[in-house]
Specification:
By secondary structure, the chain is mainly beta. The chain has 6 helices and 24 strands. The protein has a 14-stranded antiparallel barrel with strand order 2-3-4-8-9-10-11-15-16-18-19-20-21-24. The chain has a two-stranded antiparallel ribbon with strand order 6-7. A hairpin with an 8-residue loop joins strand 9 and strand 10.
Length: 551
Amino acid sequence: MNKLIIAATIGAGLPLLASAQAAVDLANLSQLDLSGTARYMSMGGAFTALGGDLSTLNNNPAGIGVYRSSEVGLTLSLMNRNTETSTADVTDKHNKTLFRANNFGYVGSFNLYNNTTPFINFGASYSRVASFDRIMSGGWGNMNGSSLSNYIAAMTNSEGDIPSSDMQFDGRYDGYNPYLDSNIPWLSILAYNGYVINDNADGVIYSGLMGQGTYGTGEFKTREKGHVDEYNITFGGNVMNVFYYGIGVGITDLDYKQYSYYQENLSNAYIAALKVGAEDGNPDIVNGRADYRLSNFLHSSGSGFNLKFGVIFKPVNQFRIGLSVHTPTWYNMTDTYYGGIDYKYTPNDPAYLINQPENPSDAPITNDGTSWHDYHMRTPWRMSVGMAGVIGNNVIVSADYEYRGNNMSVSDVDGNEYKDVSSDVKTYYKGVHTLRLGAEFRVTPQLSLRAGYVYQTSPVKTEAANDGVMIWTAGTIPSYTFNKETQYVSVGAGYKFKRFYVDFAYVNRQRKSTFHAYTPILVDQALDQASPSASVSARDNEFVLSVGYKF
């Protein structure tokens, strides 16, 4: 083996110090898609004031009060998801086809033969309300003086004087954390043992690999997959066919997986190496070749519940006003986690070698394991208002406005809130505004044509989106993604045959995002370097089919 080169893997199933999730993770897991029956999606989901559709059970529960007969229905969809990731040097495209059940539901309508309260209705439904499937990859041909190693060093130094003796890796990352009370970020420990950061000044000041004259390339790949499913139980009715009400309970199931790596290949890097024959065993900082890769796996899963309240008011037959309020969803969550670093360093000066075992044949070194963490998570609340009108006898138009707050939070199993994460949520995120428009034209009593449009604002504050603040992440995953605006355009058709119906919808979704390999670097409490970033454009084409029976 060449004694001037050592290749190794340092891995850890790492319990997280401050919390299971950072603010950026909460925002990712709280996002929702336009999803439901074909009629609902083809009209842009603008049903807050309309009702009479199975999707209203998880939109405005008062919509169940509009029913005058029972109904059972099933919705299937076929989605083609296209993701394009672009940097100044590379453009990567990924394509994936997903087949899923969007919605299944039942509404039981009970006629009370009473002029004041003519109907009492009950319903139950299943809906897939979010899909996380996405692949992003790319790279930078010139790191422009920025390096993940320098960010980790700056982050480590910001925690105060941490002796290098406390950063030693001892292979016990299997659920036991010997430094739980020392407030050392796990990314710092992992990077130190992978020689991604170096110590000097008596082992309490840390530096990265990027220095004067260092140059090189960076590369990343992130694959996300998973979903949020919601099961709704809804009760409602109407008063004198003028006022409709509803209340619902939503039971949610969340499953999210992320596989990612970030890699740098640096020349003339500042690496820690031992001089051959040195007696003190203390490494010097010398120039050389540095190649390393940080790999991560995260599995977040849990279940939760929320409540929904809604009303619809119909002062005249041609006009309706609707209002719905959704509480936050309260989750019980579990994270399973793995992080590891692979590295290879080669000093330019043959008089040096990398700090390594006495017997080089002992390398590569492997220490890994799996850990888990239980916690509570709360997503934002939502409120929708809508109006719908009938023009003539064959045209329906509707419009909704929805506001979603930014009151996300995470707490331990005893209910103690992680206030630093809540503070980060307020720093990075703002409320989201959504406009939904829909129209239906009844060509014949059996055939209807539909169209819809949705516009959703970015949830990210301008300063955070433009590298104006440091973005904290959890565990050993330094990357994060900020979504910009989202738009949906939809069309569809429906046909009724006696008590049966079939509906079709085509939905196009476009969402732009920005991927950040790591946060802007904080040096002496000032932002010193912007983070390497990539533009992400997602374009989805979804074909939706609903069939149902009314009785």
